[in-house]
């Protein structure tokens, strides 16, 4: 029950700060407070800029003692994101989780991950290998292409995941 | 006077506001203990359950020693203010209606004084005339006026009782002018109460970083406690932080850098101290932590089990390690120095410790 109370608290906080944080849009499922959707903007000066990526957040019952499950719904080419499932390899979502993190701060951490890929623990080996072999140009063009293909929409509004 | 009283410390006196003064049937002696029996449990419902700080003793068991009823009859002579006489008539009269005793005190002084005069005029018994004299001359034996203490005495200046001096802290006329010890006790107690109240007020708005709620807004009283971190100054509910530290964790989570660390700043913390109030200075924190440790050091460690068991916390344990005869456990730590200069403490030396596999 503590998880529900805390999620309500976060829900209120998100609504209060609406408009303040432009690169993160958190919304909660209308019928289930344990399911959230986030739209994050790709950070500037990265291959992901101009892209808007959809994240699906599944909050476990024991939250915040257990981290939420976050995955990319929008396809993305990044060494720490599984190309097919969208699974994210990020320590704070696994072993370094702290109950003081909120869904908002998790989204911010994912944005930071986009800007600083960790090629040494890749979920997407192709992206990881490109970076590890020093082929920055190859990595940039691949990720930019997928950003343009999947995350940038001509109407610049929210992308449809389907 | 002291003999007729209950040995149980008066709870109103403990808070510096017993209106009955020296006529109270409970003890006003700081060396006596307060009652540790939960009255709610005896009536059948204690909402704190197993967490109650008072003893859960059935009513049938407590009636046997029966501390309050016993002193009542013996207490009667003591209940009469020393200013009045110890006349057999008046004791007989008051003994008939024991329930009216505390009420009667405030007015008895007058009638008692009249009785003294009449008795002195009638019988002129040497012993009787002598006895009330020295007592009534000693103002420290006379109680202070309960009305003045509570705020307003209808008799004003003409009141026969002593009007207490104003306590600067609680703003009540409750300082007995002729009992220096009681004055000091009251002042100390009053200041401590005021400090606690202020700290409590300041703690109201502190939020827990885990549940994001104000700690003092929790539904039950037992949850409205802070968990003080020994390593840093981030506030948490004691329930939240303990739940995080002792909960089940994902495999691969490092105990020392993740679980035992502060969720906010990741500074490792070895223990969490529960406290109703939050602190605002390092000294206040130290006071709370030391108070907690002192309290625990009076409780027998259940792992140590009076010498029958082994406590996994060893010398770091906060609880009391005493044997059945009351002697404390003495531990000599054995430090082993390795060739590379590092030392470690051995508990039970086994040959296998020195073998390499």
How many domains make up the 3D coordinates of chain A? 1
Q: What is the radius of gyration of chain B? A: 29 Å
What is the name of the CATH class of chain A? Alpha Beta
Largest sheet: number of strands, sense, barrel closure of chain A? 4 strands, antiparallel
Q: Using DSSP, what is the number of strands of chain B? A: 6
Helicity level of chain A: 25-40%
Strand content of chain A: 5-15%
Count of discrete alpha- or pi-helical segments spanning 4 or more residues of chain B? 13
CATH superfamily of chain A: Ubiquitin Conjugating Enzyme
Oligomerization category of the chains in this entry: heterodimer
Domain UBC core (chain A): 2-152
Organism (chain A): Ceratodon purpureus (Fire moss)
EC number (chain A): 2.3.2.23
Keywords (chain A): ATP-binding, Nucleotide-binding, Peroxisome biogenesis, Transferase, Ubl conjugation pathway
């Amino acid at each position: 029950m503590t998880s529900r109370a805390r999620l309500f608290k976060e829900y209120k906080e998100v609504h209060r700060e609406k408009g303040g944080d432009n690169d993160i849009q958190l919304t909660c499922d209308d019928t289930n407070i344990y399911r959230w959707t986030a739209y994050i903007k790709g950070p500037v000066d990265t291959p992901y800029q101009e892209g808007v990526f959809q994240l699906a957040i599944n909050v476990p019952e024991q939250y915040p003692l257990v981290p939420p499950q976050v995955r990319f719904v929008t396809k993305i080419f990044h060494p720490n994101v599984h190309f097919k499932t969208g699974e994210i390899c990020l320590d704070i979502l696994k072993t370094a989780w702290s109950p003081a993190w909120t869904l908002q701060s998790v989204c911010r951490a994912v944005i930071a991950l986009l800007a600083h890929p960790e090629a040494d623990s890749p979920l997407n080996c192709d992206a990881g290998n490109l970076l590890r072999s020093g082929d920055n140009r190859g990595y940039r063009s691949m990720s930019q292409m997928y950003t343009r293909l999947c995350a940038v929409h001509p109407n610049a509004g929210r992308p449809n995941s389907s | 006077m002291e003999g007729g009283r209950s040995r149980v410390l008066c709870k109103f006196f403990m808070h510096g506001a017993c209106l009955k003064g020296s006529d109270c049937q409970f003890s006003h002696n700081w060396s006596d203990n307060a009652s540790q029996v939960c009255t709610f449990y005896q009536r059948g419902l204690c909402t704190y359950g197993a967490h109650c700080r008072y003893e859960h003793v059935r009513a049938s068991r407590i009636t046997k020693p029966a501390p309050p009823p016993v002193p009542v009859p013996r207490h009667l002579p003591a209940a009469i203010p020393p200013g009045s006489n110890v006349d057999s008539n008046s004791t007989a009269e008051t003994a008939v209606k024991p329930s009216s005793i505390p009420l009667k005190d405030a007015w008895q002084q007058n009638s008692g004084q009249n009785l003294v005069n009449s008795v002195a005029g009638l019988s002129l018994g040497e012993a009787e005339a002598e006895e009330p004299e020295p007592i009534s001359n000693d103002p420290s034996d006379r109680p202070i006026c309960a009305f003045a203490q509570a705020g307003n005495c209808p008799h004003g200046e003409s009141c026969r009782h002593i009007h207490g001096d104003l306590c600067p802290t609680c703003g009540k006329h409750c300082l007995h002018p002729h009992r220096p010890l009681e004055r000091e006790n009251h002042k100390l107690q009053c200041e401590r109460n005021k400090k606690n109240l202020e700290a409590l007020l300041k703690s109201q708005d502190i939020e827990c970083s885990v549940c994001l709620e104000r700690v003092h807004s929790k539904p039950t009283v037992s949850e409205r406690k802070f968990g003080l971190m020994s390593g840093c100054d981030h506030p948490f509910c004691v329930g939240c932080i303990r739940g995080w530290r002792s909960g089940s964790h994902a495999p691969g989570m490092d105990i020392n850098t993740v679980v035992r660390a502060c969720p906010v700043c990741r500074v490792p913390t070895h223990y969490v101290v529960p406290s109703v109030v939050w602190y605002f200075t390092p000294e206040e924190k130290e006071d709370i932590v030391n108070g907690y440790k002192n309290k625990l050091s009076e409780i027998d460690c259940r792992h140590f089990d009076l010498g029958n068991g082994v406590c996994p916390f060893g010398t770091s344990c906060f609880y009391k390690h005493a044997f059945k005869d009351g002697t404390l456990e003495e531990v000599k730590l054995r430090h082993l120095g390795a060739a590379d200069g590092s030392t470690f403490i051995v508990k039970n030396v086994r040959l296998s410790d020195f073998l390499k596999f």
